[in-house]
Amino acid sequence: MAIVSRELLAKLLEFRKERDWEQFHSAKNLTAALAVEVAELLECFQWVKDEDVAGVVTRERAAIEDEIADIAILLSYLCHDLGLDLDEAVQRKLEKNRAKYPVDLARGKSTKYNRL
């Protein structure tokens, strides 16, 4: 399964194909583009105090949605192109995280697993 619905993924793939952009969408390039888009999302919150985040989300909602959409689009292309099932990958990672962060050691802590 993709990060977006099958119907939306089909539209994304058609959009890309119509523009002959597959040639630019290597795994390396898509990953680099993802990093850039995540940085652009982070920029929306740069220097914002925690108590001011809600106001930023209200004021900058359209920009935040655009950046999140860009991230979802690029991640969808990457998963599709690499033949990855995101649901399966997330499920496997969840199980790994359960082992790394047992509730009795990790509850209420932000400590990395190797320091619990």
Largest sheet: none
CATH architecture of one domain: Orthogonal Bundle
CATH class of one domain: Mainly Alpha
Structural class: mainly alpha
Percent of sequence in beta strands: under 5%
Number of strands: 0
CATH fold annotation of one domain: Helix Hairpins
Instruction: Report the helical percentage.
Output: 55-70%
Please, what is the average pLDDT? 96
Termini separation: 34 Å
Shape verdict: globular
Whole-angstrom Rg:
18 Å
Count of helical stretches: 6
List unreliable stretches of 5+ residues. Answer: none
Order of helices and strands: HHHHHH
CATH superfamily of one domain: MazG-like
What tags apply to this protein structure?
mainly alpha, Helix Hairpins, 116 residues
Structure description:
- By secondary structure, this protein is mainly alpha-helical.
- It has a domain at about 5-85: Orthogonal Bundle (Helix Hairpins), CATH 1.10.287.1080.
- The protein is built from six helices and no strands.
- It is globular, with a radius of gyration of 18 Å.
- The two termini are about 35 Å apart.
Summarize the structure.
This protein is mainly α. It has helices spanning 6-18, 27-45, 53-59, 61-82, 86-100, 103-106. The protein contains 6 helices and no strands.
